[in-house]
Amino acid sequence: MELTVKEFAALERVDERTVRRWIAKGAVSIRRTPGGGIRIVERRSESRVTIFARTNSDNSGHPSQ
User: pLDDT category, 56, cuts 50, 70, 90?
Assistant: First the structure.
């Protein structure tokens, strides 16, 4: 099943900008449409908490305070 960024954000109950950050971090798999759009093709097994911690951590791998 493929979802748009907007559909995926609604499913996950997060903002579209958050989904785009997850895409940039490689937390979700995407495919580009011929017109340059993004379709999310599958969720990786990581939880949103893990993605959030990684997105907000420093280089040491520990969450920033």
Answer: low
Cβ atoms 4, 30 nearer than 8 A: no
Q: Report yes or no: 46 and 30 within 8 Å, Cβ to Cβ.
A: no
Tokens of 19: 């989904």
Could you give the CA distance from residue 38 to residue 55 in angstroms, rounded to a whole number? 21
Q: Per the structure, how many domains does the chain have?
A: 1
Instruction: For the full predicted model, state whether its pTM sits above 0.70.
Output: no
In a domain, 16, yes or no: yes
Of 50, 4, 3, nearest to 26 by C-alpha is 50
Range of the domain at 21: 5-55
SS3 of 22-61? HHHHCCEEEEECCCCCEEEEEECCCCHHHHHHHHCECCCC
